[in-house]
What does this fold into?
Amino acid sequence: MSISRLSISREKRGRLKHRPRVVIYMEILAELRERPSGPTRISRVVNLSYDTCVEILRELEAKGLTVRAKQDGHDVYSTTPDGYRIVDDWNKLWQRLKT
It folds into this structure.
């Protein structure tokens, strides 16, 4: 199950004006875990502006949770082993809190 479904589902939350940054981090890490991607795709999937997405991807990279590589001249991000563990821990916590 994707983190975006585990965090706060759109059906239940209605229109949020502001998502907690940690939820955005988890949504991005979960998407990158499924498929390494560039900032354009990630910004669309997690509903962020491109500039905000790049800022957060760089933060995650600085924290050692993502890595950036060049592919055909474009930046492509993927999740590091630490990023995988964070997503797993988040999923376990969320499942525990839901029960």
